[in-house]
Amino acid sequence: MATATVTPIVPTKSKLLMDECQRLACSRLEEILKDVLTQADDVLFKFANGADNSRRQNLFFDAMRELRIKRGQVEAAFVKNLRAGLREAMEPPRPGVRSLAGAFDGELSLIGMDEVEEDLAINTFVANAHNRCARELFGLEQRLAVLLKQPKLNNENNPLSPLAIGRALRDACEVLDADIEARITLYKLFDKHGLGAILQFYGEVNQVLINGGVLPQLGAAAPAHAAPRRTRVIIESDEGRVEGVGDDVFSTLTNLMQGQGSRGAGGAGGVGGGPAPSMINLGGGVGGVGGVGGVGGVGGVGGVGGVGGVGGVGVSAVSAVSAVSAAFRSWAWTSPPNS
Q: Are 23 and 159 in contact (CB under 8 A)?
């Protein structure tokens, strides 16, 4: 009978170190999540007590109940997702299977506002974690690349990157049937109160790898914080295609429409404040009115698009959301979230 020998992609010593990193990651990050879930229960209770009407009060109480009932499921799913990411990083690539970073098939689709809000919260956490943990992440990426026999690791393929942690958390929260505000609250608390412990966790993982002989002499200096990514916005209509680049989505949209040659541009709608005590604002402003031959302004999130001028075009809030959704893929948030 013929036999086959399977050679693991990660040598034995490296596998032992990766197993230690996995145990440390699951233990430390689960502790962080447990603490955040406890704080989320307290925050939702405060929101319920401060609600301005019975509907919102019931919404927050329902979210509290849902989180308490499914807390164990969220924690278990989070750890399972972390383990899966680390296991995938240690396995050889299977023929015909693309990595998550290379899985984009070229098609874009309009996504709902709830998904946009979740993207915003997770991307904010990822950017803040990179800013605060830049030095530790620099060493971790270099050492894990050596350990996994990879030429280079980054935010997309590092199994312990802030993006990997954020994705693990978001996927774990899919078991929650609560209103979007409960999940957004959880993400913001994870960002606000978990970063200090995550910084310490990265330091511990680096020390495990140093003790295992992986780049022990690696310089401590990390590259300076990278310049924030620029946002590229593309708007297509019956009249053609226009593009713009800027620091954020809404200002880029505004500048884009204001630069249409001789066309007068309508003002951009502001982002309206949501009712207290919500942590997210869904109500948007109303877009400005386009000038003669101009383009109507873009309504704020949840707002109404401006009215096109004579011969002009009005851009609705739905179109704005479509552009925002596409732009999220290249948007790096640099300011901390509002508490």
A: no
